[in-house]
Specification:
Elements: E1 2-7, E2 13-18, H1 21-52, H2 72-82, E3 90-95, H3 106-114, H4 120-126, E4 128-130, E5 136-143, E6 151-159, E7 162-167, H5 173-182, E8 201-208, E9 214-228, E10 243-249, E11 252-255, H6 266-290
Antiparallel strand pairs: 1-2, 3-8, 4-7, 5-6, 7-10, 8-9, 9-10, 9-11
Length: about 290
């Protein structure tokens, strides 16, 4: 006589004795039928979950079934609303080193330019034909002191020079302005090099919209004319306009949108440094000494 366990319709368990092979076969059939019902119900629950719960990527940037920008109407609506920045809508402002006392005879000339009495600086700003928003490069080195793929860590950052081209007026005042500024870097009378603070200034470059409103801007800090390019003259250029190309060197640039007040003055930076020492370094020292 065989003995086994049969599942009841209510999910309970009861012992039963199998008196003949037919009863055993019936019991096996009941178990298979119940297993099929459970499998079917599981599949229905999974299908329902797929319909109601979107798949969320571990990266957090993809949802299955999410509407994309491939909809042409939505794309054009956004374009019409925001528009595009145009490279010919820009503004350049020069702030040369002025108000300084120096033995360089051209310091008085640059101070006079700053008063805009003859419109030299304004003319140079208007006659700017092209200029660049500068880039910024993060310097990296490979960190090999880890297992697995090598990673790159930041060790500093650097900037490239900015080049601009200007149309020249009939009296060449734009060329003279940059030559005077450049001659502040050395004294043409004594050939001595000038002091850094006596020849560095600021240049501001702004992106304008269709209504000539400023939308973005950067400032070249501690800049000066590094190179004033050669100018070609030719009898064959009857209708051409003379241009001058100037390359500016600078220490760093900052965004006028969210970095205008940076870096902070030295006294504020000292306070921030002391606060960082108090909050970060000192507790770690105490942990090493008394931990």
């Amino acid at each position: 006589m065989s003995r086994g366990i049969i599942l009841s319709k209510t999910g309970g368990r009861r012992d039963s004795s199998f008196n003949n092979p037919d009863q055993l076969r019936n019991a096996v059939g009941q178990l298979g039928h119940l297993d099929g019902l459970v499998s079917t119900e599981r599949q229905q629950l999974n299908a329902q979950a797929k319909r109601t719960l979107p798949y969320i990527s571990p990266l957090g940037s993809f949802a299955k079934g999410e509407t994309t920008y491939s909809n042409i109407e939505k794309m054009f609506a956004e374009i019409r609303g925001d528009g595009f920045a145009r490279p010919n809508r820009f503004e350049v402002l020069f702030f040369p080193p002025t108000g300084r006392t120096s033995l360089n005879p051209f310091q008085e000339v640059i101070n006079r330019y700053a008063t805009n009495a003859d419109g030299t600086i304004r003319s140079a700003q208007i006659k700017c034909q092209s200029i660049q928003f500068p880039g910024r490069t993060v310097d990296i080195s490979e960190d090999t002191n880890i297992y697995g793929p090598v990673r790159s860590i930041v060790t500093g950052y650097s900037y490239g020079d900015v080049q601009a081209t200007f149309l020249c007026s009939n009296d060449m005042r734009e060329k003279l302005f940059f030559e005077v500024w450049q001659r502040l870097t050395f004294n043409p009378q004594t050939w001595a090099m000038g002091y850094y603070n006596n020849y560095v200034g600021t240049i501001q470059i702004n992106q304008l919209d269709q209504d000539d409103d400023r939308q973005y801007g950067i400032a070249l800090m501690d800049c000066f004319p590094k190179d004033i390019g050669a100018q070609d003259v030719s009898q064959s250029s009857n209708n051409a306009i003379s241009t001058i190309t100037v390359t500016f060197s600078y220490r760093y640039w900052k965004s006028m949108v969210d970095e205008e007040q940076l870096p902070k003055p030295l006294d504020n930076r000292t306070d921030l440094g002391a606060e960082r020492v108090n909050e970060v370094n000192i507790p770690s020292i105490f942990q090493r000494l008394f931990g």
